[in-house]
């Protein structure tokens, strides 16, 4: 009896032990363990082949380790893109035109809410395909240095300070503020010195001086890494100063890791590792390319070249330990996102599908569009009354969805075109007619013209002109572009100009030109012909309604240009020249068509005397500047108050002036507001030819106004800025 009891007890003990062994969690799945401990535990359990499979954007599932399938490639430039129905916000260049960091934070928070919701419902259904994940390759913080670049629309414009401020806010909204988890992982791209030519990007060497690198091309990346703690950085296709960006010791190791202390992962642009041997020809084959990229700090390959890492190990081009170090960073990101954790432990797993394309997000999209639209000219034609006898809406982009969405877009079942927006705003007794009138970029095949007479016989004509994603964008996307998405011809299509001429001839009635597009273009003749000119950018799903609100005076326009509009390309250096001399408002000495920071309103603002907290500021100390802004007009309006700093005696290699602060304010008619800026030593510093940031001495001039401080701004109707000088002393 006793022997049978012992045998039974031993059997029970063995069964319990086996059950515990089966049910106990591996360390890497235990949320109570430190993240680094979990990462190292998982690495020890993986074969080399399994490790390599997790270092390309499309990760296969590893069932024995309970690792799910995952694709790292997702986009959210101005809304969750390429994934399905989502809120379509205005394109990035339009968001930047708002000069509103709080608004940028709200937008990216809404986008990340929708991204999490899409991920949550997709995973619940067992769908884990591309564009349904949590790692978003956004934002694009390259400097829009030349209007020929078709992807400039994806950026926040030409200024490193504005790009930094909007970019930091955008990343914070994407990644969330939970202490344990990322809502989604943001990515600063394309690192670095990358802005065309688009077709040459797979072989091009962008040459930039250390001064231009530190003063223009790197500040936004630095801000996103050191302030916003962006989780990922995408290295660019091209070479920078002769080294491929995805194998660049200076960029990836010296600056990103050692100087800025970046802890996240680096991902290649898609196919960039293949370019090592096919385009740049710096190595002989895929194994050498993959080994070089990993050794230089690129953990994730968007592409398939990292499959060659197995051969690279066999050839002793790289060690498995080096692969472990690169993969550990990626596993860390996945753990920060909660991909290995139960949903109950992650607050973002509770975000439901109700937020996707919600009424709240639609209203936010419209708010961004309203604040982004730039009034370039107004001879008094705007705002229009909404109860005129007859309106005529025409132009190739008036009823065109492509002119709302730009590139890297999502889809939406309710997109309001310009024609639809205007139709929804006019009174029932008013008549409205619509005809496209002309084709986007070529002459009409049918010569019969039913449009010109319609324009003459109406009370107001609204013509929607410009460009769209068919002729500007990324290399393979702009299917009507002969230059692979770039715009080597600065003019808008000539047939559109001729169309506008015909409508204006012998026509005393007002013609309102609405211009779509994501980059500067030659609007000189449109400016002369039209009575008012509105730049709408790519304004998103509510674009038509936003434009109509402004045309009919519900809202005063308040957008400001985040990029200079030159009069012609002859005012600029060669497209392939990455030197900043002659480029952007900071270094362009010729008079532009429209200056950086420019934009009119339906009111008139006046800037009072500039007051400084000191006349002699000691080097290394902060100070303040302030002025009183008055709304002298009859309408309430937002104004973007801009602070520029100049060092007039510092030499010809220094910027003419640089944006160092901005505040968006709203003033009722007749109201005033004191606007104050704190000026830090960093804002007063200069970058020398060696790329060193130095605190300087001497005279400094401050400008506070409604545009960049050049005569052209005042000629176009912007009030004279408040100005003042101080001396920086030892």
Residue-averaged pLDDT: 95
Distance between the termini: 98 Å
Q: Enumerate the strands of the largest sheet in spatial order, edge to edge or round the barrel.
A: 9-14-13-12-10-11
- How large a portion of the residues is in β-strands, by DSSP E? 15-25%
Total strand segments:
25
Mass-distribution shape: globular
SSE blueprint:
Layout: H1 2-23, H2 35-45, H3 48-53, E1 58-59, E2 70-71, H4 92-97, H5 101-124, H6 160-175, E3 187-191, E4 205-206, H7 210-217, H8 219-226, E5 232-235, E6 239-240, E7 243-244, H9 249-259, E8 265-268, H10 272-278, H11 286-296, H12 309-314, H13 320-337, H14 359-372, E9 374-378, E10 390-394, H15 402-405, H16 418-423, E11 431-435, H17 452-456, E12 460-466, H18 494-504, E13 511-516, H19 524-529, E14 532-537, H20 543-551, H21 584-587, E15 605-607, E16 611-612, E17 616-618, E18 623-631, E19 637-646, E20 658-667, E21 672-679, H22 681-684, E22 686-687, E23 693-694, E24 698-705, H23 711-715, E25 722-729
Parallel strand pairs: 3-5, 4-6, 5-8, 10-11, 10-12, 12-13, 13-14, 17-25
Antiparallel strand pairs: 1-2, 6-7, 9-14, 15-18, 16-18, 18-21, 19-20, 19-24, 22-23, 24-25
């Amino acid at each position: 009896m006793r022997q049978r009891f012992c045998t039974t007890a031993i059997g029970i003990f063995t069964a319990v032990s086996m059950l515990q062994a089966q049910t106990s969690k591996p360390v890497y799945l235990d949320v109570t363990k430190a993240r680094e401990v979990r990462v190292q535990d998982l690495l020890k359990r993986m074969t080399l082949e399994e490790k390599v499979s997790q270092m390309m954007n499309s990760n296969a599932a590893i069932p024995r380790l309970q690792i799910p399938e995952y694709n790292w490639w997702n986009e959210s430039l101005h809304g969750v893109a390429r994934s399905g129905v989502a809120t379509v916000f205005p394109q990035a260049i339009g968001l930047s035109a708002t000069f509103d960091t709080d608004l940028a934070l709200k937008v990216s928070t809404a986008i990340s809410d929708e991204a999490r919701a899409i991920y949550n419902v997709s995973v619940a259904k067992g769908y884990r395909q591309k564009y349904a994940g949590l790692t978003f390759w956004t934002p694009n913080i390259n400097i829009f240095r030349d209007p020929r670049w078709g992807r400039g629309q994806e950026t926040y414009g030409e200024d490193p300070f504005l790009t930094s401020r909007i970019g930091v806010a955008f990343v914070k909204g994407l990644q969330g503020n939970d202490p344990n988890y990322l809502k989604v992982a943001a990515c600063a791209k394309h690192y670095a010195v990358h802005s065309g030519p688009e077709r040459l990007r797979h072989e091009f060497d962008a040459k930039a001086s250390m001064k231009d690198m530190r003063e223009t091309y790197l500040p936004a990346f630095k801000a996103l890494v050191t302030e916003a703690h962006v989780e990922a950085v995408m290295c660019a296709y091209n070479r920078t100063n002769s080294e491929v960006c995805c194998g660049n010791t200076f960029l990836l190791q010296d600056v990103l890791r050692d100087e800025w202390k970046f802890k996240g992962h680096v991902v290649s642009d898609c196919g960039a590792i293949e370019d090592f041997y096919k385009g740049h020809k710096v190595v002989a084959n895929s194994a050498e390319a993959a080994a070089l990229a990993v050794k230089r700090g690129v953990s994730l390959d968007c592409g398939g070249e990292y499959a060659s890492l197995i051969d690279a190990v066999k050839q002793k081009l790289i060690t498995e330990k080096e692969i472990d170090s690169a993969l550990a960073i990626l596993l860390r990101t996945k753990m920060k996102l909660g991909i290995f954790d139960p949903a109950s432990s992650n607050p973002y797993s509770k975000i439901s599908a109700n937020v996707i394309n919600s009424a709240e997000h639609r209203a936010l999209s419209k708010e961004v569009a309203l604040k982004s639209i730039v009034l370039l000219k107004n001879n008094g034609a705007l705002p229009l009354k909404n109860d005129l006898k007859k309106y005529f809406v025409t132009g190739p982009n008036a009823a065109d969805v492509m002119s709302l969405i730009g590139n890297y877009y999502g889809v939406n079942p309710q997109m309001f075109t310009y024609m639809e927006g205007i139709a929804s705003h006019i009174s029932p007794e008013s008549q409205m007619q619509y005809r496209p009138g002309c084709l986007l970029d070529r002459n009409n095949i049918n010569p019969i013209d039913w449009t010109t007479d319609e324009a003459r016989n109406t009370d107001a004509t609204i013509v929607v002109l410009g460009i769209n994603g068919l002729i500007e964008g990324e290399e393979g996307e702009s299917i009507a572009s002969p230059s692979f998405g770039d715009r080597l011809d600065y003019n808008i299509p000539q047939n559109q100009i001729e169309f506008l001429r015909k409508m204006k001839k012998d026509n005393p009635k007002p013609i309102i030109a609405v211009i779509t597009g994501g980059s500067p273009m030659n609007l000189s003749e449109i400016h002369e012909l039209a009575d008012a000119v509105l730049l709408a950018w790519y304004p998103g799903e509510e674009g038509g309604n936003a434009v109509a609100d402004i045309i009919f005076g519900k809202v005063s326009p308040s957008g400001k240009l985040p990029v200079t509009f030159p009069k012609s390309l002859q005012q600029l250096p060669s497209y392939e020249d990455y030197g900043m001399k002659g480029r952007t408002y900071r270094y362009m000495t010729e008079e532009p068509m429209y200056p950086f920071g420019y934009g009119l309103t339906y009111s008139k603002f006046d800037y009072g005397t500039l007051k400084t907290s000191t006349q002699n500021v000691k080097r290394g100390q902060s100070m303040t500047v302030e002025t009183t802004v008055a709304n002298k007009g009859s309408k309430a309006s937002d104004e973007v108050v801009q602070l520029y700093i100049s060092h007039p005696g510092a030499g010809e290699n220094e910027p003419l002036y640089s944006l160092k602060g901005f505040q968006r304010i709203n003033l009722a008619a007749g109201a005033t507001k004191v606007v104050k800026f704190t000026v830090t030593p960093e804002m007063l510093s200069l970058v020398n030819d060696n790329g060193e940031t130095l605190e300087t001495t001497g005279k400094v001039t401050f400008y506070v106004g409604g545009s960049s401080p050049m005569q052209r701004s005042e000629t176009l109707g912007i009030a004279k800025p408040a100005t003042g000088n101080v001396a920086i002393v030892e």
